[in-house]
Amino acid sequence: MVSMLSLSTGTIQVDNTTQENFVGIIDDMLSINNEGSWAEVDEHNENKNSASAAGSLLTTVETFGTAVAKSLDTGESVNLVKDNIVIQIKNTNESSIAFIPNGTTAGSGIDFSLAENDLDNVTFTAALYKTMGTLLQNTRSSSGFTSEVLALSINGQDTSNLSSPVTLTFDTDILMQQNNLMGQTTVDCVFWNDIRGWLSEGCSWVNDTCRCTHLTNFAVIISPVPASDAYVLRIISFVGCILSVLSTVTTIVVYIKLWRYLKSDRSRLLLNLCAALTIAYVLFLVGIDQTEDNTVCTIMAALLHYFFLATFCLMLAEGIQLLISVTFVFHAESKLKWLLLIGWGIPLVIVGVTVGITYDNGYHANDYCWLSLSNGVIYSFVGPAVCIIMVNVIVIFCVMKALFSSKFIATKTEKQKIFAGVRSVTVLLPVLGVTWLFGIISVNNDLIVFQYMFAVTNSLQGFFIFLFYCVFNVSVRRALEKKMKRFEFRTQTSKTGSRIQMMKTKSTDSGKMKGSLMNLHDLLQTREEL
Question: In this predicted model, what pLDDT tens digit does every residue of 210-262 receive, in sequence order?
């Protein structure tokens, strides 16, 4: 029947009655009750490389739309609404095409801007297939759930490589509710190929919309992240954060205990960096899932935004401090207060402005209390972080050039300290930068391997700081040696003092005994005289 309709569409009388009859037949065929029949037809199809039965139906509807469009005048449209299908066929000279099946901006729809040379009486056919996703052969989404299908074709034009992408909106919330998808999910924007099934070439999922560079039949496939992966990722993040908190706290304790030998502006900046990371990790552990209350979740997201951004700004402050150490060797005035203002003040301004602009427009994501990807809020963190990394790379280059090109440093010890600082910043910058690069990739492209890499590297930042600023830091090791020698000296001094005191005590006791004997002798002599 599908083949007959396809062949006869070119000569069919497309009056209102014919249109209603045709779409009525298509609507009946798309009933979910016929799913078994569609599968049976495909199963008995001997040519496995031919189009599926449901795929042929898509072609039939497109051909029907082309035939109807021939009789439309400019500005005239045909709207056919049934239970399982909604079709709009229109002749337009407007600069854009908008297909909203539900009559409102909510739910599924198509938005496409025409090129300037295509504005003369363009005819198009747009359709919404509510059940087609479950009827089509679907080898790619065996573990996922396919949405309703949106289709758009422009008559008489090559739409295989668009200069401006078509934007498609799908009601993913309804799809998730219908299939009880409550945990982590991945979303793929796909189009139908009669031979290969669902493909994603030329399509991407951006800001909760599907964007494609060609026109055809589109859908989205939502797949749940396997429970094992979600569980393992959660365990990795939890264990890594605990380890990082212990590491940053240990670093703080080590520097406080050795403060006599490590006291410097650079050490003060490090303590601030460890404090920022410690608070950020604790907030992450206790607040990332507090999505029940919007206000609480917004506060948690803002605090995480602030403290993680502060870690980058404090790294910038440390880079500036290194540059000052090299450029102004004999400077007397400390710049610490200005560096701390950079470390804690800039994040406060960025977070305050971002929250003020986007508080009512999705500051945080729906599934967790972190910055939303749907409206670009995440870039209020990524943008400054990338800029700071670039600035610090330039700073490191300038510092290394100065160290190797002149002999301005008076002592070898000072030069070693600067080298140690450069090494620490050089090693930590890629750690901090690559970490969040993994995070962006893992969220935008839904690649599980990057989710694992992000969970490992991000949760272990504090541990890396402990390694590079304590374990592998020459200044800390030397300070510890001095501390141990001082302790040994005090112990030996204490023992020597105890021995001297014992000797004094014995000498005093001997004198007292001698005096007592002399007094006894005098007493006896007095008695004899009496």
Answer: 889 888 887 878 777 665 566 677 787 788 888 889 999 999 999 999 998 88
Question: HSE of 207 in the Cβ direction (CA atoms, 13 Å)?
Answer: 9
Q: How far apart are CA 26 and CA 16, in angstroms?
A: 15
| C-alpha span between 276 and 278 (Å, rounded) | 6
End-to-end CA distance of the chain: 154
* Residue 29 exposure: Cα atoms within 13 Å on the Cβ side: 23
Q: Tally Cβ neighbours within 10 Å of residue 38.
A: 19
The token pair at 211 is 């964007």
Counts of helices then strands in the chain (DSSP H, E): 16, 13
Domain 227-482 has CATH 3.30.160.100: no
Give 55: exposed, middle or buried? Use CB within 10 Å, 0-12, 13-18, 19+.
buried
Other CB atoms within 10 A of residue 190 CB: 27
Specify the DSSP class assigned to residue 469. Answer: I
Fold of 2-224: Chondroitinase Ac; Chain A, domain 3 (2.60.220)
Domain assignments of the chain as residue spans, ordered by start: 2-224, 227-482
Indicate the angle between helix axes 53-69 and 16-29, nearest 10 degrees.
170
* Length, in residues, of the chain: 530
> Given the structure tokens 């290969």, which residue do they identify?
196
Alpha carbon distance 520, 92 (integer Å): 134
pTM of the model: 0.55
Could you give the dihedral angle defined by the CA atoms of residues 517, 523, 529 and 530, in that order, rounded to the nearest 10 degrees?
Answer: -160
Q: State pLDDT tens for residues 450-494.
A: 556 666 766 777 888 888 888 888 888 888 888 888 777 677 766
DSSP string, 238-250: HHHHHHHHHHHHH
